[in-house]
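Hey, can you fold this one?
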Amino acid sequence: MQATCPASRTSSIVKFGYDSAMADQLIHKILGLLSSEAHERQIAAAIVLGEIGARGEAVTAALAATVAGGIPPVQRHALEALARLASGKAARKALPAVLGCFGSREDPVRRAAIDAAIAFGDDAVGPVRARLAETTDAAERRALEEVLGRVGGKDAFKALMAALDTPDIEAARAAALAVRQRVKDANPRERSAYLAAVTKVLRAKMSAGRASGRGPGLGVGLLVGGLKILGYLEDSAAVPTLIAFARDARQAPTVREEAIVALRFTARGKAASVGTTLIDLAERAPPELARAALYTLASLEIPAALAPRLRKLALGREPERALLAIERLAQIRGAVGADALAAVLAATADRGRAEVAAGALDARPEGALAIGRALLATHDGERVALLARLLRPRARGLATSGAAGKKLARELVTAAVARAGKAGAGAGGDADLVPLAREIDREATGAGLRAQAVKLQKRQDTSGALALLRLIGQSADATAEDGYALASAELRAGRRDEALAIARQLLDRGFDLAAALRRDRGLDPALRYQVGFALCERRHPAGEEILGDLARGGRSKIAGMAKAKLKSAGYV
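Sure. Predicted structure:
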């Protein structure tokens, strides 16, 4: 913090009880210490001169000479003293010595030189500007640019803009960075003036490039730095200029990318027009610009109208662009965003994209509805299986999520039953719909599957009926009648061992197997004989009853075989 400066070089000392003559003698002694060979004395003298506010040409000259001495610790304290004594014509004569330290490799010295130059205020702008036009040393340029950025004023800003006009892109970016603090501290009127000045320069460069036909190499440093400053200003009035540069295919990629990045800070309230520009770039621009556009899109409240285009990008050939598009879809609120994510999940063949989309959906309250709608529209087995597994943990919540959820729940149960009724439905993704449907409504699912199985049997669709009966009979809530229907179907399909295994389980549960076989008009007597014969072999009473029913069937071959078996087994 700069000390309050006295009106004369001795006034501070006089306040402490010294007369003018004594003050002059004291300052003379202190100045003598600056030329001491002991660095500690030089440092002490510099500190004291700054603290007491000693002024005059002799003081300035001595401190400047000490700075020029090249001893870093001494230089730093001499520069700090000059910062305290910066006002007045005499002090300005020390500016060359201060500027000479801007290229120092010692950071404390360079920082002290910057602070000293800033303390000189407007008086430093001219010398700093001249030095900036000459030097090529990167560290020195950064120091000079920082002074201009922090001093402010029209001349300083012009000097900074001139520093941007360099073929060194990184140097231009660094010069723009020096403006950041100045922009931050500026009042609204100053910010408006900066915006107008930068926009004018950028538009002039764009027009000059078009007129000359020199292509993207014209003034790239100036354009990059200027666009970065427009971003720092955070003014939506800069949006048209930034969009113009972002869309201009004649500009260098670095220029276009800088314009895209700057839109992140200026696009508030301009989501519609900026969003359209960014999605255009995401679709058509080279990968590095598309990436920047999709990252910038993240800073906006993305309009729902962009969901179809983002979904198409998410299913495109380029993985990185696709994943960023999925992330942007996740930002779109409500059913539109959720449905778009579900559509990506249902359609993509890429596991990584599917996982990202699934994760985004799982975190959304409307995710279950979106997955359910996607399930109804999807018939690919793998996708159906994936969507069904994702929805199962949230399936019971559908029925309590309002009218839309209840309607979707009914549709999912109906679809599960209908798809399971197709031939071969016991394998593939459609089979995953049945457990999901049971989670939603176990009773309705069971009733629907049984009715569907009856229809298939009437149509003599043996394989379809058997697949359905397996789904029913092998479930945890299967009844004894479901088990018998499966055993009968397995027997008709020639799977005797499987049918007998089920029959024995039913008998163990107390099921009246003989009565069920008696009622089963669709089962051939020869098949019933196989069941009775196998049970007789095991000495199960049900075997005698089944064969007894068959033996009373007259003089048929099966009746004779049943009588013979009963006799050989000792039942008659």
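The first helix runs from residue 11 to 15. Let me know if you want another pass with a different chain boundary.
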